[in-house]
Amino acid sequence: MTKEYRGWRWSAHIILGLFALACILPFVLLFTSSVTDSKVIVTEGYTFFPSSLSFAAYDYLWQNSKMIFNAYGITILTTVVGTTASLLMTSMLAYPLSRKDMPGGMVLAFIVFFTLLFNGGLVPTYMVYTQLFDIKNTLLAQIVPWLLMNGFNVLLMRAFFMNSVPKPVLESASIDGAGEFTIYYKIVLQLSLPIMATIGLFQALAYWNDWNNGLVFVTDAGLFNLQNVLNRIMSDIEFLSSNASMGSGSIIAQLPSETFRMAIAVIGILPILIAYPFFQKFFVKGLTIGAVKG
Amino acid sequence: MNTTTRRKRGARLRRFIPLYIMMLPGLAYLFINNYLPMFGLSIAFKDINYAKGIWASDWVGLKNFEYLFKTTDAYIITRNTLLYNAVFIVLGLLIAIAIAILLNEIRGKMARGFYQSVILLPYLISIILVSYLVYAMLSVDAGFINKTILPMLGLDPISWYLEPKYWPYILTIVHIWKGAGYSCIIFLAAILSIDREYYEAAELDGASKWMQIRKITFPMITPIITMLTLLGIGRIFYSDFGLFYQVPMNSGALYETTNVIDTYVFRGLMQLGDIGMSAAAGFYQSLVGFILVLVSNYIVRRFDKDNALF
């Protein structure tokens, strides 16, 4: 290896290392800040090396944890239900569209495609979901608007079905007397695990990270998901305790507000950080599929 | 004869009935979630009165638009949306390409995988959590910058959430920080698919690394650069609502540099109750956005048919 090449390799390591640090350090700061003693916050601020540690913020969080557990429950429920429904609806629309022999297929595919080019935007969508169908302050509001299905995923899946589900298999099943639903369920879905898993992962992330639906359609704190609670606490730090008053009536500790903010964000980030190593490889692959098509 | 062919066609169509039924849930959803709101754009031409109901409210022609374009807001939100997007497209591409090229230099699979995963991390978390991370840096009383960095440089603390002039930089940094990992993957995939023989031949001829990047890597990924740039231009009227709403914490003092069309529409609808204005701004965005998508796609087609959206 020549000197020049070694130089390149080392500079690549240094620059990428710095960028990687820039990506990680904010998370570290969040954590160290959350365990800083609130007495030293005034002088030291949020810091990587606090001179005095305290878990008061987590104590406070634990005492007011009802809301957090509820929010986690909503997040998990909407993620599971939303992702499942989304995969079903997407594949059930994509499979017929992948059948070139179906009359009207091109027109229907265009109807799906057109939604990628043009959309009504926030105001009319808000009117549809509040005036025409009133789903404000229901669980449906956390699942249905915007997120449930999108044309891009339908077309992605359709392309996969066209390329990866061999036609002779479908035809022979049909000759054997299998109905379309049987074919869809027993053959198409079984052969399409990679694309189902990819789109499922992205849908699950979209549901887990969604705060927009809650912000627009939900005012009832009982239906807030995790992101909505975090969002609310940003502007209203006493949100948890004010909503917990209906509960146990325990003595509420003094609110260590600056460290508490950081502690609750740690609680919000933790599940993603823990799950990431497991889906990481898959995620990168999925990004490439979507990117090539998009 | 005629009846038999008709019967045949009928039988043929009947065979597809299960397929049509299968599509119903998805099509119904697209109708409700996408097509009804398109028709609902007509409320931009109405004086919305909840007492009368949305659909029975009076038509007012272009009045909402007249009001909108008389305000300075219309100019500010258009300017901000366009400028931010322009910067995001140019800087975003440059940095993503640079990272992809550097990642390609790392030969060890483990090391490359490690960098890639770490750089992707910010892309995974919600913008709400990003706003917490930014707050840890910028908080006036406790932020890392005000308490550690600025004192080290001997500077006075800054009220970040009240000073609009810093936000173009802050939002750009946050955008790049969150998105670079994602966009570099596209380029990395493209670079990895370049035939190694080109580089080997160049090495034999004594071409320097920099020369190879300029003469092989760049030309090979130019189609993707063109395509992504044009797609970005097609979406230049839209912005990431969360970035502009959550990260500045909806601070009124910052609107001058943080208000974009999406945040304007949201505030008009949800906070100010000014539906007419909000609907007009939304209509303006949908229409111009649509035209830009068509135009940019037309240009992509002229360059390279395979990369065009349609």
Brief descriptors of the model:
heterodimer, A: 294 residues, mainly alpha, MetI-like fold, 15 helices, B: 310 residues, 13 helices
Termini Cα gap of chain A: 38 Å
Provide the number of structural domains of chain A. 2
* Secondary structure: number of strands of chain A: 0
- In sequence order, what are the helices and strands of chain B, one letter per element? HEEHHHHHHHHHHHH
CATH architecture of the largest domain in chain A: Orthogonal Bundle
Total of DSSP H or I helical runs spanning 4+ residues of chain B: 13
Spell out the blueprint of helices and strands.
The complex is a heterodimer of chains A (294) and B (310).
Chain A: H1 3-34, H2 38-44, H3 56-63, H4 65-98, H5 105-117, H6 122-132, H7 139-143, H8 151-164, H9 167-175, H10 180-191, H11 193-208, H12 212-217, H13 226-235, H14 239-244, H15 257-293
Chain B: H1 2-40, E1 46-47, E2 58-59, H2 63-70, H3 72-105, H4 109-124, H5 127-138, H6 144-152, H7 167-192, H8 196-204, H9 209-234, H10 241-245, H11 255-258, H12 261-270, H13 275-303
Antiparallel strand pairs in B: 1-2
Transmembrane segments (chain A): 12-31, 71-95, 107-127, 139-162, 183-208, 260-279
Pfam family, one (chain A): BPD_transp_1
InterPro entries (chain A): MetI-like (IPR000515), MetI-like_sf (IPR035906)
